[in-house]
Each structure stands twice: as structure tokens, then as C-alpha cells.
């Protein structure tokens, strides 16, 4: 037997997924700003590109969570996908799976694979970014249209 959910239950769950996605985006944005502005660590080139895709998510997911607008996933998922792709590439560089010759961050500023690329002493920032983008994408994928009567 097919278990159909009412519109109210679907909207309640969508609102919850959007709220969690927004909270992750805000936490990632505040962490990036803290590292850059308070700690004083200059972001590498790949970090800048990840910020370009994460910062708007903190705004548009907040608006969508407030309005319970699950259609935001059609606009947010491309941002999540591009940010996750950059974070994945950055993670490969950090763990040495991509050769140094194609590392774009060695000309100036912070290295993409240096010791400064950790948070809390041991968590690599590129991996944390990848997990944040993946979690946001997963939560947005859980949003679904309601069942109309």
C-alpha cells in the first residue's frame, strides 16, 4: 500500500530540510569569514571560488526557509553542484592526489595544501567545505512537491 503524505506534512518536512540547509550554509559562511577576517588567514584561490558559491546560499536558503519555498532547490542546486565540484578538486589537491603542477594557488597567498588549510587542528578545510556542500545538496534533494487533493 502506498503511503501518501498530506500537503501539510510535506510542507512541514520541506521547511525543516530548508532550515537545516540554511543553518549549514550560515555556519560555513561564518566560519569562512572568521578564518579570513578574525584569524587573518588569506583565502587561497580555490577557497575564494568556494565562497562565491556558498555565500549566496546563506541568503537565498534563508529566504526560502522563511517562506517554505521548496522550489528554491532548482536555483540552489546548481550553486551547490559547482561549489562541491571545486571543493572536491581542492580536497584532491590537499590530500596530494592531484599533482603540484596544476595547483593554482602557489603563485601568491595561502597554499591549497598547506598546514593552514585545517580547522580545529586536524579537519582539512577543503574536506569540510565538500561535506557542507554535500549536506546542503542532500537536504535540498529531500524537498519534494506536496500531494495535491
Please tell me about this protein's structure:
This protein has 149 residues and is mostly helical. The protein has one domain (1-142): Bromodomain-like, CATH 1.20.1550. The protein has helices at residues 7-38, 45-67, 73-94, 125-142, and strands at 118-119, 123-124. The protein has a two-stranded antiparallel ribbon. Strand 1 (118-119) and strand 2 form a beta hairpin. It is elongated and about 55 Å long. The two termini are 18 Å apart.
Beta strands, count:
2
Briefly note the CATH topology name: Bromodomain-like
Helix-strand makeup class: mainly alpha
Strand content: under 5%
Percentage of helical residues?
55-70%
Spatial strand order of the main sheet:
1-2
In the predicted model, the low-confidence regions spanning at least 5 consecutive residues are: none
- What number is the mean pLDDT? 84
Q: In the CATH classification, which architecture applies?
A: Up-down Bundle
CATH superfamily: DsbB-like
User: What top-tier CATH class fits best?
Assistant: Mainly Alpha
* First-last Cα distance: 18 Å
The backbone outline, from C-alpha atoms, is: elongated
Annotation field: number of helices:
4
The biggest sheet amounts to:
2 strands, antiparallel
What is the number of independent domains?
1
The secondary-structure element order is HHHEEH
Radius of gyration, rounded? 18 Å
Quaternary state reads: single chain
